[in-house]
Request: fold
Amino acid sequence: MNNSVKRNLSSLLGKKKIIVAFIYVLIVLAVIYSLNILTEDSNKNKNISNSIPEFLTTTMGNTVMTIPTKYMKGKHKTVGKNYRGEVASVKLWALLPNFDWYDPTRNQYEFIKELGGEKRIHISLSLRNGVRPVHKFLDKDGGQYYQYSYFVNSEYSENKYGIEIYKQHDKRNNWYLYKDKKGNLQYKMTCYKERTVPSPSCSGLWEYSDDVRVRIDFKKKYLPIWHQIYTQVNNLIKSEQRTAIYLPISLNGK
Reply:
């Protein structure tokens, strides 16, 4: 092999090494750039997460409530205001039986995708605005309110799970009433009867305060633990700060 050929081969090998080195440098720069982007996104997410308060303190009427934000249903439409700019409603949700909060990395299926939402409980807080209170539901002087509540034709059946059950002639649902030791009505609930709908549910109603009414909606299979649910919801919206806000619940009921 003559010197001219050797020089050409050396030149080609040199150029190849330069090209390979250039490509290697580009790859290294691309990796560094990607890492920087990921770090910036992570920092942005941390900043966003840190900007959301752990608790939302809000006032409805004269009632002050401190609510864990992780139980709030959505970031924008969870708090409703009236024409005066006052907070008039707050919507929350959780998973039964242990009041787990929404986390897309753990339970998106149960909260969002599961047909019927078998474990979901929806919690609605609203200003009472002069609406007849729950404890007067049984007052016959309520006129049309009592007459058209459909309770008028109900018959007492039994006390089960610590709540009085009144069966209706209506095929769809029954009434469930909880009274304190003095016989004052504290909580009323209706539940669909079995075999009327594929997955019967219950709706409970009570006054958290003179200003705030609470409504909850959950599947009837959790009826045995209705009182634990009632207690947990009240704990969830109570005024003082706290770190632990839910406890394990047994499905055995009382």
Helices lie at 3-51, 108-113, 144-147, 226-236. The longest strand covers residues 87-95. The chain has two domains: 1-51, 55-236.
